[in-house]
Amino acid sequence: MARLVLVGLPGAGKTTVARAVGERLGCRVIDTDEVLAAMVASPAPDHLRAVGEAQFRLDEVAALTASVAHEDVVSTGGGVVESEAARQILTNELTVWLDAPDDVLVSRVDGGDRPLLGGDARVAIAALRARRGAWYRDVARARIDATGPLEVVVDDVLRAMMA
Protein backbone atom coordinates (compact mmCIF):
# COMPACT_ATOMS: atom_id res chain seq x y z
CA MET A 1 0.00 0.00 0.00
CA ALA A 2 1.35 3.41 -0.94
CA ARG A 3 2.17 5.98 1.69
CA LEU A 4 0.44 8.69 -0.40
CA VAL A 5 -1.05 8.99 -3.88
CA LEU A 6 -1.46 12.37 -5.58
CA VAL A 7 -4.14 12.97 -8.21
CA GLY A 8 -5.22 16.06 -10.11
CA LEU A 9 -5.58 17.71 -13.47
CA PRO A 10 -2.60 18.29 -15.77
CA GLY A 11 -0.46 21.09 -14.38
CA ALA A 12 -1.57 20.63 -10.76
CA GLY A 13 2.01 19.88 -9.71
CA LYS A 14 1.63 16.21 -8.80
CA THR A 15 5.17 15.21 -9.76
CA THR A 16 6.81 18.28 -8.20
CA VAL A 17 4.84 17.97 -4.96
CA ALA A 18 5.41 14.20 -4.80
CA ARG A 19 9.18 14.71 -5.02
CA ALA A 20 9.11 17.32 -2.27
CA VAL A 21 6.89 15.17 -0.02
CA GLY A 22 9.10 12.15 -0.65
CA GLU A 23 12.16 14.16 0.30
CA ARG A 24 10.49 15.32 3.53
CA LEU A 25 9.41 11.79 4.41
CA GLY A 26 12.66 10.19 3.32
CA CYS A 27 11.00 7.77 0.93
CA ARG A 28 10.97 6.96 -2.75
CA VAL A 29 8.69 8.67 -5.24
CA ILE A 30 7.05 6.73 -8.03
CA ASP A 31 5.52 8.43 -11.07
CA THR A 32 2.92 6.22 -12.75
CA ASP A 33 3.73 7.78 -16.14
CA GLU A 34 7.34 6.62 -15.71
CA VAL A 35 6.22 3.14 -14.62
CA LEU A 36 3.92 2.97 -17.64
CA ALA A 37 6.71 4.13 -19.96
CA ALA A 38 8.98 1.37 -18.64
CA MET A 39 6.22 -1.23 -19.04
CA VAL A 40 5.48 -0.35 -22.68
CA ALA A 41 8.96 0.92 -23.68
CA SER A 42 7.54 4.25 -24.82
CA PRO A 43 6.89 7.63 -23.19
CA ALA A 44 3.30 7.93 -21.92
CA PRO A 45 2.24 10.61 -24.47
CA ASP A 46 3.61 8.54 -27.37
CA HIS A 47 1.93 5.39 -26.05
CA LEU A 48 -1.39 7.23 -25.78
CA ARG A 49 -1.11 8.37 -29.39
CA ALA A 50 -0.11 4.88 -30.57
CA VAL A 51 -2.75 2.76 -28.81
CA GLY A 52 -5.61 5.17 -28.17
CA GLU A 53 -7.15 6.23 -24.90
CA ALA A 54 -9.04 3.00 -24.08
CA GLN A 55 -5.93 0.80 -24.18
CA PHE A 56 -3.86 3.51 -22.54
CA ARG A 57 -6.24 3.56 -19.54
CA LEU A 58 -5.93 -0.24 -19.17
CA ASP A 59 -2.14 0.05 -19.21
CA GLU A 60 -2.35 2.96 -16.77
CA VAL A 61 -4.26 0.78 -14.28
CA ALA A 62 -1.47 -1.80 -14.49
CA ALA A 63 1.09 0.95 -13.80
CA LEU A 64 -0.98 2.25 -10.88
CA THR A 65 -1.33 -1.24 -9.43
CA ALA A 66 2.43 -1.75 -9.57
CA SER A 67 3.08 1.70 -8.11
CA VAL A 68 0.87 1.42 -5.04
CA ALA A 69 2.34 -1.95 -4.10
CA HIS A 70 5.17 -0.15 -2.30
CA GLU A 71 5.31 2.14 0.74
CA ASP A 72 6.18 5.16 -1.41
CA VAL A 73 4.74 8.46 -2.55
CA VAL A 74 2.98 8.03 -5.89
CA SER A 75 2.32 10.70 -8.50
CA THR A 76 -0.32 9.75 -11.06
CA GLY A 77 -1.19 10.88 -14.54
CA GLY A 78 -4.04 13.38 -14.56
CA GLY A 79 -6.46 11.02 -16.26
CA VAL A 80 -6.00 8.04 -13.97
CA VAL A 81 -9.48 8.66 -12.51
CA GLU A 82 -11.04 8.00 -15.93
CA SER A 83 -10.91 4.27 -15.18
CA GLU A 84 -13.31 2.74 -12.67
CA ALA A 85 -10.67 0.12 -11.82
CA ALA A 86 -8.18 2.88 -11.01
CA ARG A 87 -10.78 4.72 -8.92
CA GLN A 88 -11.33 1.58 -6.86
CA ILE A 89 -7.59 1.34 -6.22
CA LEU A 90 -7.34 5.03 -5.33
CA THR A 91 -10.27 4.82 -2.92
CA ASN A 92 -8.33 2.24 -0.92
CA GLU A 93 -5.19 4.40 -0.77
CA LEU A 94 -4.38 7.61 1.06
CA THR A 95 -5.17 9.78 -1.96
CA VAL A 96 -4.88 13.58 -2.05
CA TRP A 97 -6.25 15.77 -4.85
CA LEU A 98 -4.02 18.69 -5.88
CA ASP A 99 -6.09 21.41 -7.50
CA ALA A 100 -5.62 24.90 -8.91
CA PRO A 101 -7.70 27.32 -10.97
CA ASP A 102 -7.84 26.60 -14.68
CA ASP A 103 -5.76 29.66 -15.61
CA VAL A 104 -2.93 28.43 -13.35
CA LEU A 105 -3.11 24.93 -14.82
CA VAL A 106 -3.05 26.31 -18.37
CA SER A 107 0.02 28.44 -17.62
CA ARG A 108 1.81 25.40 -16.17
CA VAL A 109 1.12 23.04 -19.08
CA ASP A 110 1.98 25.56 -21.79
CA GLY A 111 4.45 24.00 -24.21
CA GLY A 112 4.28 20.49 -22.70
CA ASP A 113 3.54 17.27 -24.56
CA ARG A 114 -0.05 16.62 -23.47
CA PRO A 115 -2.03 14.90 -26.23
CA LEU A 116 -5.42 15.23 -24.54
CA LEU A 117 -5.14 19.02 -24.28
CA GLY A 118 -5.17 19.54 -28.04
CA GLY A 119 -4.91 23.03 -29.49
CA ASP A 120 -6.73 25.11 -26.87
CA ALA A 121 -5.49 24.15 -23.42
CA ARG A 122 -7.97 26.44 -21.67
CA VAL A 123 -10.98 24.74 -23.27
CA ALA A 124 -9.46 21.27 -22.75
CA ILE A 125 -8.68 21.88 -19.04
CA ALA A 126 -12.23 23.13 -18.43
CA ALA A 127 -13.65 20.04 -20.14
CA LEU A 128 -11.37 17.72 -18.16
CA ARG A 129 -12.39 19.42 -14.90
CA ALA A 130 -16.07 19.02 -15.78
CA ARG A 131 -15.60 15.32 -16.54
CA ARG A 132 -13.12 14.37 -13.79
CA GLY A 133 -13.89 16.71 -10.88
CA ALA A 134 -16.40 14.42 -9.17
CA TRP A 135 -14.06 11.46 -9.55
CA TYR A 136 -11.17 13.33 -7.92
CA ARG A 137 -13.50 14.31 -5.08
CA ASP A 138 -14.70 10.71 -4.67
CA VAL A 139 -11.25 9.13 -4.42
CA ALA A 140 -9.45 11.80 -2.39
CA ARG A 141 -9.22 12.16 1.36
CA ALA A 142 -8.45 15.88 0.90
CA ARG A 143 -8.39 18.56 -1.79
CA ILE A 144 -5.31 20.79 -1.57
CA ASP A 145 -4.92 24.19 -3.19
CA ALA A 146 -1.76 23.80 -5.25
CA THR A 147 -1.36 27.46 -6.19
CA GLY A 148 0.83 28.52 -3.27
CA PRO A 149 4.57 28.15 -2.75
CA LEU A 150 5.78 24.55 -2.92
CA GLU A 151 6.65 24.39 0.78
CA VAL A 152 3.12 25.51 1.73
CA VAL A 153 1.54 22.94 -0.57
CA VAL A 154 3.79 20.21 0.88
CA ASP A 155 2.87 21.25 4.43
CA ASP A 156 -0.83 21.09 3.48
CA VAL A 157 -0.37 17.62 1.96
CA LEU A 158 1.46 16.37 5.05
CA ARG A 159 -1.33 17.72 7.28
CA ALA A 160 -3.90 15.95 5.11
CA MET A 161 -1.96 12.72 5.52
CA MET A 162 -2.24 12.98 9.28
CA ALA A 163 -5.95 13.89 9.34
Q: Which range does the strand content fall in?
A: 5-15%
Number of strands: 5
- Per DSSP, the total helix count is 7
CATH homology superfamily: P-loop containing nucleotide triphosphate hydrolases
* CATH-level-2 architecture: 3-Layer(aba) Sandwich
Strand order of the largest sheet: 2-3-1-4-5
Oligomer: single chain
Euclidean distance between termini CA atoms: 18 Å
What's the overall geometry? globular
CATH level-3 fold name: Rossmann fold
Mean pLDDT equals 92
Briefly note the structural class of the backbone: alpha/beta
CATH class: Alpha Beta
Number of domains: 1
Please outline the helices and strands:
Elements: E1 4-7, H1 14-25, E2 29-31, H2 32-40, H3 44-67, E3 73-75, H4 84-91, E4 95-99, H5 102-109, H6 121-139, E5 142-145, H7 150-162
Parallel strand pairs: 1-3, 1-4, 2-3, 4-5
Helix pairs in contact: 1-7, 2-3, 5-6
Output the keywords.
single chain; 7 helices; 163 residues; alpha/beta; Rossmann fold; five-stranded parallel beta sheet
In short:
This protein is an alpha/beta fold and 163 residues long. The chain has seven helices and five strands; from the N terminus they run E-H-E-H-H-E-H-E-H-H-E-H.
Explain this structure to me?
A 5-stranded parallel β-sheet has the order 2-3-1-4-5, with helices on both faces. About 55% of the residues lie in helices and about 10% in strands. It has a single domain, classed as P-loop containing nucleotide triphosphate hydrolases (Rossmann fold, 3-Layer(aba) Sandwich), CATH 3.40.50.300. It starts with a strand and ends with a helix. The radius of gyration is 15 Å and the shape is globular. By secondary structure, it is α/β, with parallel strands linked by helices. The chain has 7 helices and 5 strands, in the order βαβααβαβααβα. It has helices spanning about 15-25, 30-40, 45-65, 85-90, 100-110, 120-140, 150-160; strands spanning about 5, 30, 75, 95-100, 140-145.
